Amino acid sequence: MTPLVLGLNGSPRRDGNSDTLLREALRGAQEQGARVTVFDLAFLNISPCKACEECFSNGDCVIRDDMDRVYAALEEADHVIVASPIYFSGMSSYAKLAVDRSQALWARRKVLDRARRPGTGSIVLCAAQPDARFDNAVSELRAFLLGIGIAPGAVLKVPGAEGRSFAAGRPDILERARELGRDAVSTNPGP
Ligand SMILES: Cc1cc2nc3c(=O)[nH]c(=O)nc-3n(C[C@H](O)[C@H](O)[C@H](O)COP(=O)(O)O)c2cc1C
Fold it and tell me: What domains sit in the chain, N to C, each tagged with a CATH number?
């Protein structure tokens, strides 16, 4: 079957660095024969997790919003690529909203013991400072992937990404993103 690669974009800047690199990675995945789908989280209606713990009983979130579509895609994908700008040494708030709402998927795995079929994930992070800190975002996004039953893999860190067109003007970084997408599919060709 054709593998599905899901991209989650945590940047509000269209054609910004995260957007550009995520789409390049998805192009790489398509070159390997994958179907791809992408959610621009900043343009979706996603409320914060209320910590009501209702999902602990059935694995479903009580909130009805655009996260419904993201849940379905996160469960269906063979590979997930999360891209985010670094904001105050962490992931963006748009990415974090979706991560926290994924508590419902965590509950399916860890509370209700409902296994997910094998999936892999990778991470793309862009920051303006040459000496930017990526470790917080990497740690949280790895925990997110592991928590929803997806094995974390490659991480592409892009420091010095000053200005939204930085990545677009760097063929070497674009190629690294495309390679990340290609590798995602070649290492996890799906069912
Ligand atoms: C609210 C906010 C906080 C930021 N915090 C950091 C930071 O802690 N470290 C850093 O290097 N860059 C920081 N930046 C810069 C962005 O990470 C950088 O511009 C990045 O390339 C944006 O990616 P994008 O084009 O995908 O939106 C911040 C930008 C914003 C808007």
Answer: 4-187 (3.40.50.360)
From first to last of the 191 residues of the chain, give the pLDDT tens digit: 899 999 999 999 999 999 999 999 999 999 999 999 999 999 999 999 999 999 999 999 999 999 999 999 999 999 999 999 999 999 999 999 999 999 999 999 999 999 998 999 999 999 999 999 999 999 999 999 999 999 999 999 999 999 999 999 999 999 999 999 999 998 867 66
Instruction: Tell which atom from ligand 1 comes closest to the C-alpha of 161.
Output: 21
Residue type, 2: T
Q: Give dist(CA 92, CA 81) in Å, integer.
A: 15
Characterise 113 by phi-psi region: left (phi > 0), alpha (psi -120 to 50), beta (else). left
101 lines ligand 1 (CB under 6 A): no
Cα(128)–Cα(141) distance, rounded to whole angstroms?
19
Q: Choose one of 19, 22, 86, 136 to mutate for the ligand 1 pocket test, by most ligand atoms within 8 angstroms of C-beta.
A: 86
Indicate whether residue 85 lines ligand 1 (CB < 6 A). yes
- Closest residue by Cα to atom 2, ligand 1, is 87
